[in-house]
Structures are given as C-alpha cells and as structure tokens.
C-alpha cells in the first residue's frame, strides 16, 4: 500500500530527484515540463550537473551561443522561434552553457 504522503498529490520539484524518492510501482502518470531548448530560465538553483565523472573537481568553461531554433519570418523582418510571441526570444536569444574541461560534464538547466 502506498503511503498517504504520495496519494492523490501534485508534487512540484526536480522530476529526477522526486521520482527517486517515490516507492516502486506507485506512479501511474508523471507530468514534467519538457525541455524548451533554452527558452525558459528557472533560476540558478535549478541548474544541474549532467554526465561526466561524479568524482571530478569540475573546471567549468562557459560557451555562449545564439539559440539554434531561431529562423527569419517570411512575413516580416523579425526572427521567430516557432509560434513564440515573446520578443526576447525572437530577436536573438543567447544561451549560456557550461562544460567541464576535465570530464565533459554539462552544467545547466533544460529550460
């Protein structure tokens, strides 16, 4: 039987961490926020280290790139991302990524 702390609840948090805490065979559906390819910024506290070596004393190198999903509009002289109407993203949003020069880990958020 599933404990009451998990039953019929909306739980907000990092899905990777939350699902680790849940009992096996206890979830019918998990709804998460999908990656938006740098279109959202959830704040520094949501950044996570992905891949690489857990024991590495990381040395982070920044890499800034223009958003790879930008395209010119056929109707106007504006640049657009899909149907996003947010001007900041239509005009050359820059995405900052950090990679460890020692082990190749990535530090950031899938926002």
From TrEMBL:
Keywords: Methyltransferase, Restriction system, S-adenosyl-L-methionine, Transferase. Its EC number is 2.1.1.113. It is an enzyme of class 2 (transferase). GO terms for molecular function: DNA binding; site-specific DNA-methyltransferase (cytosine-N4-specific) activity. It catalyses: a 2'-deoxycytidine in DNA + S-adenosyl-L-methionine = an N(4)-methyl-2'-deoxycytidine in DNA + S-adenosyl-L-homocysteine + H(+). The lineage of its organism: unclassified sequences, metagenomes, ecological metagenomes. Transmembrane segments: none annotated. Belongs to the N(4)/N(6)-methyltransferase family. N(4) subfamily. PROSITE patterns: N4_MTASE. Signal peptide: none annotated. It comes from marine sediment metagenome. This is site-specific DNA-methyltransferase (cytosine-N(4)-specific). SUPFAM superfamilies: S-adenosyl-L-methionine-dependent methyltransferases (SSF53335). One of its GO terms (biological process) is DNA restriction-modification system.
